[in-house]
Amino acid sequence: MQEFRELADKLNRDNDLPRSEFLSLIAMRRNLSSEDRSYLYSLARAKADRVYGKNIYLRGLIEFTNICRNNCNYCGLRRDNRNVNRYRLSKEQILECADRGYDLNFRTIVLQGGEDLRYTDDDICEIVSGIKERHPDCAVTLSIGEKSRESYERYFRAGADRYLLRHETANEEHYRHLHPAELSMKARMECLYMLKDIGYQVGAGFMVGSPFQTEECYADDFAFLHKLQPEMIGIGPFIPHHDTPFRDMPSGTLEDTLFFLALLRISFPEVLLPATTALGTIHPLGREMGVKAGANVIMPNLSPTDVRKDYLLYDGKICTGDEAAECRKCMEMRMENIGYHVVTSRGDHVKFKG
Ligand code: SAH
Ligand code: SF4
Question: 61, 78, 147: which to mutate for ligand 2, most atoms within 8 A of CB?
Answer without folding.
Answer: 78
